[in-house]
Amino acid sequence: EGYTVDTIQAVLARRPTRPADFDARMKAVSHFRTLDAAASLAAANKRVSNILAKSDEVLSDRVNASTLKEPEEI
């Protein structure tokens, strides 16, 4: 359907198990790539991933809700 190899690889990395999920993710990633902010958001995500990969700190999956202050965080 005209998807790029990068888009397919990005979606396959999440290992979707249902065809409908795969299709929805393909459309979402394709749409994201059309956004003006896509390149800077992807670069920021890569930087954060690299920083976290070098960290020895163990991160929890739980969020301490009492530390959330801004409406965007809640």
Plain-language structure description:
Helix 1 packs across helix 2 (19-32). The chain is extended, with a radius of gyration of 16 Å. By secondary structure, the protein is an all-alpha fold. The mean pLDDT is 92. It is built from three helices and no strands. 54% of the residues lie in helices and 0% in strands. It has a domain at 5-52. The longest helix is centred in the middle third of the chain and has 17 residues, at 38-54. It comes from Escherichia coli.
Distance between the termini: 38 Å
Multimeric status of the protein: single chain
Mean pLDDT comes to: 92
Helix content: 40-55%
| Low-confidence spans | none
Q: How do the SSEs run, as a string of H and E?
A: HHH
Number of strands: 0
CA gyration radius, whole angstroms: 16 Å
For the sheet with most strands, the description reads: none
Structural class, please? mainly alpha
Strand content: under 5%
Shape type: extended
Number of helices: 3
